Write a sequence for this structure.
């Protein structure tokens, strides 16, 4: 039986690379997106052109209604769920904590933390052997910022990823006997469009000298780690993390 996978924020960057690689490895993929429908359709079209199976689903995972819609579509289209990649995340323009207001904090945590919790909740409901599911795997896409704190730039984003790390460990222990493994990846400086959202599109080039490997990473390199954690090759790994950070 073909396995099915949801990738939140699957229309660009790490999410798109994960969707494409997962399809090549035989997954039926649901590419979740919030606003960039063209990009999501492009990923879906690429998967189908290569003989894979994919659907694109517009849903704001920072809301209960959006998450309910996303999982309902997967139920209807695929009939089962085997994996979730909690990849959707946002950041805002670089700022010191002293200049961050409550509205910005609400936006960051709504998507990066609450959204991840809501998606994990729905995935567990479907995959848990306790609920007559067949088990599965969840991979949370965190960030090296959860360790560094991202001072002077994204302390709020870093804190949201720290919360995701804590959820990863706790949930892994909670569902370990229910056939579900929960792990995380912490990308370092990766060439994706998210840096433009922070106001510095070329950020990776500026900071790559601080990376032991002296370069930025690619979205595909992160996707490879994600797919390993989803696969049976990592069957004895849960509650753990892979740092895809070039040694930083």
């Amino acid at each position: 039986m073909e396995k099915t996978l949801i990738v939140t924020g699957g229309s660009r960057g790490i999410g798109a690379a994960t969707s494409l690689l997962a399809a090549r490895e035989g997954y039926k993929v649901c590419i979740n997106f919030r606003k960039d429908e063209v990009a999501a359709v492009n990923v879906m079209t690429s998967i189908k052109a290569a003989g894979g199976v994919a659907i694109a689903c517009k849903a704001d995972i920072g809301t209960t209604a959006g998450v309910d819609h996303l999982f309902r579509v997967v139920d209807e289209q695929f009939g089962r769920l085997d994996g979730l990649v909690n990849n959707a995340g946002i950041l805002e323009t670089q700022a010191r904590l002293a200049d961050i207001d409550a509205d910005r904090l609400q936006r960051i945590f709504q998507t990066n933390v609450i959204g991840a919790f809501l998606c994990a909740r729905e995935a567990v409901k479907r995959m848990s052997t306790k609920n007559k599911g067949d088990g599965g795997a969840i991979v949370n896409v965190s960030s090296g910022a959860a360790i560094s704190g991202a001072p002077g730039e994204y302390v709020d984003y870093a804190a949201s990823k720290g919360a995701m790390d804590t959820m990863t460990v706790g949930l892994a222990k909670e569902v370990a006997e229910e056939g579900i493994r929960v792990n995380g990846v912490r990308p370092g400086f990766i060439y994706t469009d998210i840096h433009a959202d922070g106001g510095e599109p070329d950020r990776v080039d500026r900071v790559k000298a601080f990376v032991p490997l002296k370069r930025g990473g690619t979205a595909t390199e992160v996707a490879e780690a994600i797919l390993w954690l989803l696969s049976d090759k990592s069957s004895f790994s849960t509650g753990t993390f892979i740092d895809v950070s070039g040694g930083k």
